[in-house]
Amino acid sequence: MAAGKEIVSPHELERMTEAEILKLIFRPGFSTADKVSDLSGRGVGMDVVKTNIEKLGGSVEIFTTKGQGTTIRLMLPLTLAIIQSLIVEVEGNRFALPQVNLKEIVRIKEGDLAYRIEYLNEAEVLRLRGRLLPIVHLADVLNITRTFVHPVTGERLPDRRKWLGDARRYKNGAPPAPTDDRRGESLKVTRVLVLKIGNRMFGLVVDSIIGREETLVKPLPVYLKDCNCYSGVTILGDGKTAMILDPEGIIRMADLQFREENEGLAADISRESRGAEYQNLLLFKCSGNETLALDLALVARIEEVGADRIETVGDKEFITFNDTSLRVIRPEDYLPISRGNTKPAKYYVIIPKLVTHPIGILIEKIHDNIQTEIHLDSEGIMAEGLIGSAVYNDRIILLLNIYELFQMADPVHYGVERLPEGGSQRILLVEDTPSFQRIGMKYLKEAGYEVTLAQNGKEALDYLASATFDAVISDIHMPVMDGFELIKKIRDNAATRSLPAIALTSISDEQGKRAVIESGFDYYEWKLNRDSLLNTLQQALQRRKGEAS
User: Fold this and answer.
1) Comparing C-alpha atoms, which of 49, 17, 11 is closest to residue 30?
2) pTM for the whole thing?
3) Domains in the chain, number
């Protein structure tokens, strides 16, 4: 159809990958309709969707599996009024980069053997632990003028790109470092920010890193709305204005191409995520000294509010949010943590998602956004409303269980609906991490299910061979036998082939999710989302009951 409508030539079509062919539906004029009608056939549809989503700073992705269906994912930026940012500088211009996208910082010195920049088809790539990442120079993307002197010819070059054009002349794959004419010195140190957006990673090169700062996000002025590289603007601590970089927009501006992995997805999940549970956490404090943490997947927004905006009605506190009243609670009123006597002029309100009746969490300070491996201790510090504790940078952090916290604050709306009397069903929970064992067991037992716990896939198979279960809920990353091998053996066994299976994991990228479903699991659920897990489990059991009848 695309060739017939002359959107692409037959020659171009032959050279396209599956991912590139799928993206044709976003081209203006493309349509699958045989003829024009009042509703279809004009080729005005998905291109408009893509354009408007990108205007909002988001992106559209499409995945399809023959005979199974197509998934279209719309990604919009998470709007946090306050974000932790890394302040970087290029040619004297400062920019703020949201730390939630920052995976690591690589500092490459001349002659460094651990990290090095190489050249592939005249493009720069970073070889990082066996993986090649495309490199983008922020100065080039933003068209910031720089003058370089060619290391061999002495020619003054308007930018880095002409110098890179000579890379193919050098047998070792890289020409000598250019000289920055403005500074009069060799560029011997390269600072690369490794950024991750979904399952895509790339390196962003900057001149220098100033430090970290808590930034208040303000919308872009009207005349900058079309600048794809920016998601907002902020005022830095020294009173100067800085643009907030949008990594998704930088990808589009640099026209980076990422190879789609359509086969062997389960085997291609990174070694990092196979060996450990990683979470993106928001670190903050209330009036006391303790550092609390909440998974960012549970955060819809953070609002800065003045103390005068907090109103008391009876024994409860409220703020006005989106023209309606929103109840707010202070964690120190319900948790065994210290309470200070501070009376700040402003607070922050964490507005959660994945909850049935939103309640704002009133806090005093935001420390950081981090991605860290989970090593939870659920025994040392135990209390209702807490998942457990962990150590990060030699500091104890307490992880909130917002469902328990909200249940204490609002038992009417947050009580767990139990199964009807006599309707108990047997669930096999497969989980090796003690903290998640405790959470999962609590969620399921409160809902009235009879739960058997297995520490790994091998132990789960032993239970399945000796007893009957109504469903399996399994972690993915486990010792002895992981979830992928477990589900394969379940589906290969005629006795358990139709058993409903839910993957309970913390994988957050789309590639990981697809691998989970394609491996044989019926559903995918995030570990801490109680309400969604219980609803999915009920759906799975009802579906099985319907198939049996």
Assistant:
1) 49
2) 0.50
3) 4
